[in-house]
Amino acid sequence: MKKTFIDISNGLFLGILSSAWLGYLIGLRLLNWNPPLWNNFSNIFGALFFTALLYSILGILVGIFFTFGLKAVFLIIPPIRKKLNFTRSWIRTYAVVMIVLFTYLTITRTRPDAHVLIYDTHLVIAYIATLLIFYGFLLRRLKNFSGSIVKISLLPALIFLLFGFAASYFGTPKPSSAALGNPQEIADALSAAAPDVKVAVFGVDGAEWSVIDPLVEQGKMPVMQKLLEEGSRARFESLNTLKSPLIWASMATGKTPEKHGILDFGSFQFPVMKSSFINYPDGIGFYRLVSRLMPMADMPVTSTTRKVESIWDLLSLAGKTVGVAGWWATWPADPVEGWMISDRFTYTLFNPRASAQTLKKGQTHPPELLPEIEGFVRLPDDMAPGELSRFVKGDVSTGFAPEGWQSSGHEEWNPLYQLKLGYTAGESFFNASMNLIDREQPDFFTVYLEGNDMVSHFFWQYMDDSLYPEPLAEEEIAKFDEVVPRYYTYWDSLVGAALEHLSEDTYVFIVSDHGFGPVSDPVIPYRGGDHLPYGAFLAKGPGIKPGYFAADASVLDLTPTLLYLYNLPLADDMDGKIIFDIFTDDFKLTRELENIASYETGRRTNSSLTSSSADEDIKKQLRSLGYAK
Question: What's the Cα-to-Cα distance from 381 to each of 272, 346, 384, rounded to whole Å?
Answer without folding.
Answer: 40, 13, 8
